[in-house]
Design a protein that fits this description.
By secondary structure, the protein is an alpha+beta fold. It is built from 14 helices and 20 strands. It binds flavin-adenine dinucleotide.
Length: about 400
């Protein structure tokens, strides 16, 4: 059996970066990937354009993750500017778009994979594809990494198998099994960065396809806020999606079993209750002969008016001059609290990342080495870290891969 200095399991961004860094340090490195090729999930990122990272400051970055402070040491060593430099010096031009998101100039995520492949080759990493790792055992001097066909020995092993979201890309939760087999605690895993299913079918059916911009959406459990986002919300056949909802979904997923979760959309987050009421009074006065449903065109997207009035319990055909103070108050309250009861979240097959994973308290944040089983390292989404949309997850994968690869 060939003995390697380092065996890396998983050819995603975390595993590739770890293998590259170990290879650049002249280690004998083997990268095992179950698919026919590495980087299958990278190809899907950023709508296939590859949102690599984000230009936000370190302090903001940390707030974008669950367990963000675990990444502080890592970001001190390899942050967004380092990742950008890594790709640009290896021939991939990048550009920055809205929300400080960084993409390849080519708008093609495949170019990220191609760069990784080229560097892996340059640093003589042996890449074996179509190898599913099923077990890791300790043989005294080295670990034995068991695959479906053959076993490999490694003095150090880096587990970089990803989470269990989009399992068709290869990351289907096997990393958690390997982590448990090597003595680690895996926290509860739930889908994150996914759509949220709601109960109010009558209203949702009518809202389907509508996108709301610049709204605030708040998730609360038993009246207590669990998370809040500002931005875009999209109504779908099952409930709500869009960037603001994706970013809330981890907190919703995590709390699903704790009780009824309410999602409240504030359709006018820039205005106070008094200001909304004053605006309504002005509209009602200026359009006294108009029906309420027509008057609301000045305030809401056209498609939303009928379901909104249904939600508020107001007859749209009513003339503005017949609208009572109580009805006006109801419209104001509904504009500030267009609310839905959560029935679930989309499955792992539809979620971009997994919340939960290898317990961060068992990993040294400076090296990614296990505190429980020395010689085993972790990198990427297999760890209990998940970020919001905007390039944060790939940056975390590359950073933790960098740390593992430079520490083995
Ligand atoms: C549709 C979609 C869009 C996304 N867009 C973005 C984005 O624009 N920006 C961003 O930052 N993040 C994005 N993400 C999230 C990001 O892709 C992941 O967080 C990131 O790929 C995790 O990297 P990783 O290396 O830890 O795991 P993965 O990329 O999942 O790689 C793990 C690899 O390990 C292999 N593997 C698993 N088990 C075994 C085994 N037993 N034996 C051998 N190999 C194994 C898998 O086949 C896989 O290739 C997106 C995710 C999805 C699904």
């Amino acid at each position: 059996m060939d003995i390697f200095d380092v065996v890396v399991i998983g050819g995603g961004p975390a595993g590739c970066m770890a293998a590259i860094k170990a290879g650049q340090r002249k280690k004998k490195v083997l990268l095992l990937e179950k698919n026919q090729d590495i980087g299958k999930k990278i190809l899907l990122t950023g709508n296939r354009r590859g949102n690599l990272t984000n230009l936000e400051s370190l302090e903001i970055f940390i707030t974008k993750y669950r367990n963000g402070s675990f990444l502080r040491n890592g970001f001190a060593r390899f942050f967004n500017s380092d990742l950008i430099e890594f790709f640009e010096t290896n021939g991939l031009s990048l550009k920055t778009e809205r929300g400080n998101r960084v993409y390849p100039e080519s708008d093609n995520a495949r170019d990220i994979v191609n760069v990784l492949k080229r560097i892996l080759k340059k640093c003589r990493v042996q890449v074996y594809t179509e190898k599913v790792v099923t077990d890791i055992t300790y043989g005294g001097e080295f670990f034995v990494v068991v695959t479906s066909g053959k076993s490999f020995a490694g003095r150090k092993v880096i587990i970089a198998c990803g989470g269990k979201s989009f399992p068709k890309t290869g990351s289907n939760g096997e990393g958690y099994i390997l982590a448990k087999k090597t003595g680690h605690k895996v926290t509860k895993t739930v889908p994150a960065l996914c759509g949220i299913e709601v109960k109010n079918e009558n209203i949702i059916r009518k809202c389907r396809g509508i996108t709301l911009k610049n709204v605030r959406i708040t998730a609360s459990l038993a009246g207590k806020k669990i998370d809040e986002e500002f931005g875009e919300v999209l109504f779908t056949h099952y409930g709500l999606s869009g960037p603001a909802v994706l970013n809330l979904s981890g907190a919703v997923s995590e709390n699903l079993e704790r009780g009824e979760i309410k999602l409240s959309i504030n359709l006018k987050p820039a205005l106070s209750e008094e200001k909304i009421d004053a605006r309504l009074r002005r509209e009602l006065k200026a359009n006294s002969n108009k029906q309420l449903k027509n008057l609301l065109k000045n305030i809401l997207p056209a498609g939303l008016i009928a379901p909104f009035l249904q939600y508020a319990g107001i007859t749209g055909e009513k003339q503005a001059n017949q609208c009572t103070k109580e009805e006006r108050t109801r419209i104001t309250k509904s504009l500030m609290d267009f609310a839905f009861s959560v029935s679930g979240v989309r499955p792992f097959s539809d979620s971009m990342v997994t919340r939960g994973g290898v317990d961060v308290t068992q990993i040294n944040p400076k090296t990614m080495e296990s505190k429980v089983t020395p010689g085993i390292f972790f990198a990427g989404e297999v760890i209990d870290i998940d970020g919001k949309t905007g390039g944060y997850n790939l940056q975390a994968a590359f950073t933790t891969g960098y740390l593992a690869g430079t520490s083995v």
